[in-house]
Amino acid sequence: MALLEVKDLDVGFDTPDGEVKAVNKLNFSIEPGDALAIVGESGSGKTQAVMSMMGLLADNGHVSGQALFKGEDLLKMSTAELNKHRGREIAMIFQDPMTSLNPYLRIEKQMIEVVRHHQGLNKAEAREHAVEMLRAVRIPDPERRMRQYPHEFSGGMQQRVMVAMGLLCEPDLLIADEPTTALDVTVQAQITHLMNALRQKSNTAIILITHDLGVVAGLCDRVLVMYAGEAVECGSVEQIYYEPKHPYTQGLLKSVPRLDQPLVREMHAIPGNPPNLLALPEGCKFRDRCPHAFAACKEEPPMQQGEDGHIFRCFLGLST
Amino acid sequence: MTKRADQPVIDPFEAALSVRDVKGRSPWEDAWNRLLKNRAAVYSAYIMAFIFMLVVLGPMLISWEPDFTDWDHTYSPPSLQSGHWFGTDAVGRDILVRTLEGGRISLMVGLVATIVSLLIGVSYGAIAGYFGGAADRIMMRVVDIIYALPFMFFLILLMVVFGRHILLIFIAIGAVNWLDMARIVRGQTLSLKNAEFIEAAKACGVSDWAIIRRHIIPNLMGVVIVYVTLTIPQVILIESFLSFLGLGVQEPMSSWGALVSDGAQDMESAPWMLIVPALFLTVTLYCFNYIGDGLRDALDPKDRP
Amino acid sequence: MIRDSGMARHSLRRLLGLLPTLLMLITVAFFLIRIAPGGPFDSERVLSAEVEANLEAKYHLDEPLIQQYFRYLGQIVVLDFGPSFQYQDWTVNELIAQSFPVSFTIGVLAMVLAFVMGTMLGIASALKQNTRVDYSLMGFAMLGISVPNFVIAPILILLLAVYAGWLPAGGWDWGFASMVLPVVTLALPVTAYIARLTRGSMIEVLHSNFIRTARAKGLPESLVIRRHALRPALLPVISFLGPATAGMISGSVVIERIFSVPGMGSYFIQGALNRDYTLVMGIVIVYGVLILVLNFLVDLIYAWLNPKIRYDEKS
User: Fold this and answer.
1) Contacts of C203 in chain B (CB under 8 A)
2) Which positions 10-29 of C are in contact with B (Cβ < 8 Å)?
3) Would you state the pLDDT for residue C76?
4) Tens of pLDDT along C3-19?
5) pLDDT at res. B20
6) Strand pairing of A205-210 and A173-177?
7) How far is Cα C311 from Cα C308, in angstroms, rounded to an integer?
8) Is residue B12, in this structure, part of any structural domain at all?
């Protein structure tokens, strides 16, 4: 059984200007130990999809569809039921560690409350466990550091604390929402390396949400590309990087400056802007910016199946 | 200009842009819309307008003079026959007309003292914010010190020292109440001074005066409007406190505070003497507070108290 | 935390920083009351010029003002507030000793009541944001801010004392019944303000990223609120306690008059009207010290609750 199966996920928000459709009919699945990257620009819906599964949507948000975690639908659960999974089997770390940690509580308190609540350990045991975890994420002098407050840590270390906190209960799934976006490049590498190591050790599945294709390659096996709330392409890292089939993915890859190629006078950019989520166009949402768009793109493109589970939502290459 | 490789895509896109453009909205429009949606604020505005009209026009339309003593009807309860719709006081003066006249004084004090407070507060805050550094620190320290002191004591001392002239009341209350305004204006000035769009304007060669006119003043106006609206009820309240203690406006002038004070004494036998002015005072304060709140929410939704 | 010498030094510095405030308070009050036309002996029976001159000499009122000022400062340092001009048989120290406990008790009880009730109502409103509970609670809060206490007080007296007879209409006998109305009426506007403040603050905190993290950790909502949200939400309220006290002291002047409570507020007004310099000054100083001590305590508490401030010497 798949660890997580997302079916036809729809997320919308009620605003005074109308309904903002953030996620449209999203489908994907994760097996135990998988590492999936969800890639897209701001507004592609990647964060909201995951927030809806974790029950962290804003008050004006609504969600439909299914998110089956070990067979149980997360979307239908009450907060109390969801709390049995959150923090324990599914952990999430966020983009900005500085504001994601409680500045008024010591790290120790924030960490041990997770294990104490979910696993019923007493204070001493929980403390030991937390210290071990801090050591595992390479925080020096963990016993002393535990007694400190978040603002006494650097950004990179804060994120490592978040990772440690997330892994305390040895979750089956770790969701990382742009964990390195707010950090320096060198720290980025450390965090990615860390997540990789931990994944190898405990076979934790990872969903990595990012807009940075460079980070993806180092950590993940599969990539899901999202645009305007929809999945436009999904495949293994090799398939996406070397044989991208969807024009958006192709555009994304071309936009990444490369060290191994001669300098070009102009950097490639995908022209135009993402569509207004209040008024999504009919048919293919990318057609206004697509260099290969043609008449048929006014209809909703089908999800084509390539080899080996490589799928993409496009009309191109279809033998009509 | 070199032709870009994806020019075939850009051209139709540009054409499409003009069709699918979303109409822009200025922040003022946004704020106005938000304000209008705040029912409490809107109703309050209507009620205030009504009270204002009553207070200004009422005494002219009602047949009774405020100092006319109707000896046949002293302490009489509200009745339609006696012509005193809201009753009379100890010497037979009509409560309604006294209340409305008192309203003129209360509202006038509210307005003028607020203006005094506005002038002091805005200048103080703008100077502190604009100059920054040590001057700012010292000036704000002074504000902190004064903030911690009970205003009532100084007001009482001032009233006692200088007598109960109405002009003095305006100034005294205004002088005691400018602190919030100063703080807010200083904060706004500071953030404006360092705002990137001001830097950008300067970099584009916009003159200082134009910057002040076009960028700084409109951005200050928002907070100033909010705090003016919130200061008015505070000031009216302070004046009513003073009047209650016998240190406010002198007879024959009266304000709502003084009327309530008088009314409270005869509360058991003639409750209307208390209720009518108390009602006007309370409703006015209530409405101003709601309008001020509404303005604050409308102009900066993140800034709720 | 108190063992932390940085904290102790910080506190000492703050304490010393309050002295200028006190000095300014004393100076302003001193010169203000002296500027007032008339003197302490005017209202008494007409005195012969000789007697008046003697009296003035006795109380040093014939000396230059500056000299009187420094003489007074010297007296204060040894806590001698001098004799009362108005109540000729009493010293100011005695009068204050009599009236201070009353005012202090009312004030403390009202403050505690306002804080407890205010925060509870504010939190309840925040948790049930935009429901009927929220609207009605905040409506009441608005009433508490808008209705002056000298309007509420007579109404309450009318209802609870005159009609129902449950409570006395005034006076003070240290019995519980006589305390209820003055304390409640004094606390009302502050309670209302604290309720609104708490509500806004709690709502804002509940939208923070770290609350999102706490929820993502699977903690029950009650724990999230108690352990993670409460402390930061209350910080603005704690800060407000300083000005709240000042406001309450202001209000107490009126309350003491309405309920005929023999506290310092009443003496103050009488003293001001009768140009009883020493009495007025004595009361101003007592209140001033009180406010400063309270602000200092509030600062300490705030620093204790907010670790970011504790380590920030530069603030």
Assistant:
1) 304
2) 20-21, 24-25, 28-29
3) 79
4) 456 667 777 777 777 77
5) 47
6) parallel
7) 6
8) no
CA C109 – CA C91 distance, rounded (Å): 28
Q: DSSP secondary-structure letter at C91? A: B
Largest pairwise CA distance in chain B: 99
In a domain, B4, yes or no: no
B194 in a structural domain = yes
Q: What is the pLDDT of residue A287?
A: 83
Report the C-alpha dihedral over residues C51, C52, C54, C58, rounded to 10 degrees: 140
Task: Taking the CA atoms of A242, A245, A250 and A252 in sequence, report the sign of the dihedral they define.
Answer: negative
Q: Which domain holds residue B79?
A: 26-303
Distance from the Cα of C193 to chain B's closest Cα (Å) equals 9
Strand, helix or coil at A270? coil
User: What residue segments make up the domains of chain A, in order of their start?
Assistant: 4-89+171-277, 97-168
Q: Which residues of chain B have pLDDT under 50?
A: 1, 20, 303-305
Interface test with B, best of A254, A268, A288 (most B CBs within 10 A): A288
A neighbour chains, 3+ CB pairs within 8 Å: B, C
Residue type (1 letter), A156: G
Q: Which amino acid is at B191?
A: S
Contacts of C232 in chain A (CB under 8 A): 103-104
Please report the pLDDT score of residue C5 as a whole number: 60
CATH code of the domain containing B177: 1.10.3720.10
Phi then psi dihedrals of residue C51, to 5 deg: -60, -45
* A4-89+171-277 CATH choice from 3.60.110.10, 3.40.50.300, 2.60.40.1180, 3.40.50.150: 3.40.50.300
The helix or strand, by DSSP H or E, that contains position C230, with its residue range, turns out to be helix C230-258
Please report whether residue B223 resides in a domain. Answer: yes
Which helix (H) or strand (E) segment holds residue B141: the answer is: helix B133-147
Are the beta carbons of C210 and A91 separated by less than 8 Å? no
| Total structural domains within chain B | 1
Nearest to C209 by CA among A161, A100, B180, A240: A100
Interface of B with C in 229-248 (CB under 8 A): 233, 237, 240-241, 244-245
Global ipTM: 0.88
Put simply, the answer to whether B160 touches C272 (Cβ < 8 Å) is yes
- The DSSP result for C163-190, as a single string, is IS-SS-SS---SSHHHHHHHHHHHHHHH
Mean pLDDT, residues A145-158 taken together: 91
pLDDT of residue A94: 93
Q: How many CB pairs under 8 A join B and C?
A: 120
DSSP string for B48-71: HHHHHHHHHHHHHHSSS-TT---G
Lay out the sheet containing A173-177: strands in order across.
A90-93, A173-177, A205-210, A35-39, A222-227, A230-236, A311-313, A303-305
pLDDT, tens digit (0-9, with 9 covering 90-100), for B118-147: 888 888 888 888 777 888 888 888 888 777
Contact A220, A35 (CB under 8 A): yes
Contact list in B for residue C160 (CB cut-off 8 A) is: none
Residue A165: predicted pLDDT: 92
